[in-house]
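quick one
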Amino acid sequence: MKKKSYENILSFIKSLRFRVFMIVTLLVIVPVIISSIFIYNVAVSEYTDKKIDRFKANNTMLKNSIVSEGYLDQNNESQIVDAQIAQLAGEYNCRIQVINSQYIVVSDTDSSELGKTSISESVIKSIDGENIFIKNEKENYVEFAEPLVIAAPSITTDSNKKSSIVGAVYIHYSMDDVVDYKEAVERYVLIIDILLTIFALVTAWGCSVLFNRPIQKMHKTIKSITLGAVEGEQNSKEYTEVAQISDEFSRLVERMNTQDKSRQEFVSNVSHELKTPLTSMKVLAESLIGNEGVPEELYQEFLQDICKEIDRENEIITDLLDLVKMEKTDAEINISSVNINEILETVLKRLKPIAESKNIELVFESFRPVIADVDELKFASVATNLVENAIKYNNTDGTVTASLNSDHQYFYLKVIDTGIGISEEDQERVFERFFRVDKARARQTGGTGLGLAITRDIVLKHHGSIKIHSKEGEGTTFIVRIPLKYIA
Ligand code: ADP
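structure w/ adenosine-5'-diphosphate:
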């Protein structure tokens, strides 16, 4: 149970649907997150920097006023300076102190340290001439401590007159508003992120359904075929790739159906062919049993007929076994380098008596000696079958020519006869199992209709081809082409 649910999860993870969903989701969400972080950081730092810059400008103005108004000389009384301090403190919500050169706080917006001596390190450093700027991100404040400098006149005769520091301005600016701003930006970014994530999930789901639909359809069709449907419903053509697979699949189903049909046909042909000699034998035997006192000669004749039928049955079974052997994909084929001329000479010699009985001339035409990689016995049976047919379906006084030639790649065996020929429509069918042009005549000639089927299978096993040219009443030519070198 546990294993099954684990397998289910695994198969879901491996599914195209899940992968499309994940890819689209990530393609949207990852850039969204990266750009949110970027936008958030840029917005916050821009806001802070601008604020500080504006603050610094105001600060400089204040410093200039303190010096120009002589604020530290005139008992710290200047309406302009006080107004500026109040405005700056109000606007930025900050604390401003003005400290004289004796480190005494002469103005404090907080009033708590007024008149006291400032011991802040920043103030001491600034009275020494340093500009102090501290930005404390952790505690969220900015601290300025800047010296108040009376500049020396630019043109003076007194070379001893130099710029002098008369005090410092200390400002403590809390950046709580920046935090508020940050939180506001954070809120907006989060809302946008959530909306985009929902959009990503919906889009990803849509894509996964869309991409998966034709495949699901195809799966349904294949399943229905597996469950026994002869033909699947029209497959989806939404995508080129799926259309290609679906076309290939339709072709496969078609081929399987044709194969199935031809197998059924073959079985019924085999049964019929095997039954015919048995029926003849039964009729012959029954007529002998049924008629008492049959003369000896008739007995002899009938028994000879029965023997012929047994031979025929035997012939059919032998051919069938040969055919079945050849059709096995791993059928043994004993390739060796063989002299083709010699094989043909032997075959023709063996068939010469049959040809002579019909007064048929057997001619062997060899253009060159040919040595090729073939299965000697199987190739001999190809030659035998073709020449035998050329004799069988020839007219008395006809000719059969076996011609052998080769080029650098193949050798060619042509078997030409001057016989009855084969009609164009039958030419396509002569390689079918049990096909005979004239069934009635075949009973006399003794053919099984399997010879050419076996011949073609042997030629194909040698990676060769077989073609037929024929004209009714004029004769037939079979052309076999086989590679000189056999490559497994
Ligand atoms: P069979 O054992 O009947 O000869 P084959 O498979 O060898 O079977 O041949 C199939 C049929 O093709 C034959 O029955 C015959 O009708 C036809 N055929 C084959 N070879 C020739 C030929 N050379 N000339 C005319 N018809 C032929």
